[in-house]
């Protein structure tokens, strides 16, 4: 279990209601208001994108919106910093390849 | 277009304290922060603070953060969240993007830049694998997002952030497999280091990471001993079974906006690199632009708060809200507090570096 439910200093976790997001076509239950990167990490996902030139995997590096390592395609918009973007019910999230593509239909690329 | 008397960029401990002092003096203040919550790095600091009672020693960082937010609400300070400052010029015009939608120009009479810092990286084969991250990133994950970035962690760097985050990883339920430091001596405050030692975590001084290993993400790391000239000793490699590698090798001031506005800089390694020159009142070389907190030299939240207060008092004074006599008294009092924080083996070095910074302005 990767979620820190009870914490010696911070106490019990307080969070929003359960919502569902779609990650690479799969439904994942997460909590409203948590950051996309945290929700994915809690579900065990570590690779958020592959680089343009060499196709190397990337994940969370700074966790505070500074490095852009964690960018993914969210609701059809590429290059979204997932560590500072909260989840919303029904959000469609895709592992990004290279610079990603802008599309409005959020379908397969 | 929007006008304000004082624009504060960054709502961390430095920015919030600047805004509180400016507002208390009577100025109209606008705080702008790109996060969805104010507080900067303060809410992830769940350890007790050092210093005097005035510095709320013994109180945990996030509790201090809550107090600052309460005070800001009571003073009805205007705070724009989810708002990035993307540009700043020497005439104190700010270009702000709000909610990733709206582009707004803010014209300020005074600007206080309190944008904080970024974590440094070090480079080794595999450093770009998912699972290698800043120690502060791991701290954000466990204490703010309440998710463990991994279960078996190697901490690279035994300075304050390294040992504090190691302890907090233990508190959150992770295993800290080892703490390595290239220096022959441990670098953090004794209290924090001792707690991690007592928990049974092995410390390796004169050791560094040789490489991270894994196909899609970290599956292990190799550490190596360094000789007196800091060269790896062949045959001393040790394999560690880890899934996360945290890098705690210092911070660099986040100073792009100060560069953009034309502030003069000086390179002071002890303060984290290039630092905008400023005087005792935290004013930079560009009239009416102030700095406070990590951007003016990497220290800690307690010093960031007092620097913010100095900047807030002086920005408000320069607008006529505080008379000169009172301004000097308030500033001196805050400097005394700062000096009391800048003592001991770690503080002394920062104090002498800060003093050096002031000499460039012909002060100190
Ligand atoms: C990840 C991390 C963890 C840390 N953990 C510890 C710790 O455990 N113990 C310790 O003693 N020190 C720690 N530090 C050092 C810490 O920086 C100081 O303790 C203190 O928080 C500095 O305060 P500040 O107000 O200068 O900056 P911050 O607290 O970083 O606040 C700066 C704020 O400015 C905002 N900002 C930056 N640029 C812009 C922009 N262009 N537009 C709008 N808003 C912007 C940021 O989002 C942030 O909210 C940590 C630093 C980092 C980066
Ligand atoms: S991890 Fe650096 S921007 Fe998200």
Mind explaining what this structure looks like?
The complex is a heterodimer of chains A (109) and B (364). Chain A is mainly β and 109 residues long. Helix content of chain A is 6%, strand content 31%. Chain A has a single domain, classed as Ubiquitin-like (UB roll) (Roll). In chain A, the strands form 3 sheets. Chain A has a 5-stranded mixed sheet with strand order 4-3-9-7-8, with no helix packed on it. Chain A has a 3-stranded mixed sheet with strand order 6-5-10, with no helix packed on it. Chain A has a two-stranded antiparallel sheet with strand order 1-2. The radius of gyration of chain A is 14 Å and the shape is globular. The termini of chain A are far apart. In chain B, helix 1 (13-25) packs parallel to helix 7, helix 3 runs parallel beside helix 4 (160-172) and helix 7 runs antiparallel to helix 8. The longest helix of chain B has 18 residues, at 301-318. Chain B folds into 2 domains: 2-118 and 251-356, FAD/NAD(P)-binding domain; 121-247, FAD/NAD(P)-binding domain. Chain B has 364 residues and is α/β, with parallel strands linked by helices. Chain B has 9 helices and 19 strands. Chain B has helices at 13-25, 61-74, 135-144, 160-172, 190-198, 256-260, 301-318, 324-341, 344-359, and strands at 2-9, 29-32, 78-80, 83-88, 93-98, 102-113, 117-119, 132-134, 152-156, 175-181, 203-205, 207-213, 220-225, 238-240, 244-247, 251-253, 265-268, 273-276, 289-291. Helices cover 32% and strands 26% of the residues of chain B. The two termini of chain B are 40 Å apart. Chain A binds chain B through residues 2-5, 7-10, 13, 15, 34-35, 37-38, 41-42, 46-48, 56-67, 83-84, 86, and chain B through 34-36, 41, 46, 60, 62, 118-119, 128-134, 136-138, 140-143, 145-149, 151, 171-173, 216-217, 254. Residues 9-15, 32-35, 40-42, 44-45, 84-85, 114-117, 119, 136, 139-140, 160-161, 164, 251, 254, 293-294, 300-301, 304 of chain B line the site of flavin-adenine dinucleotide (FAD).
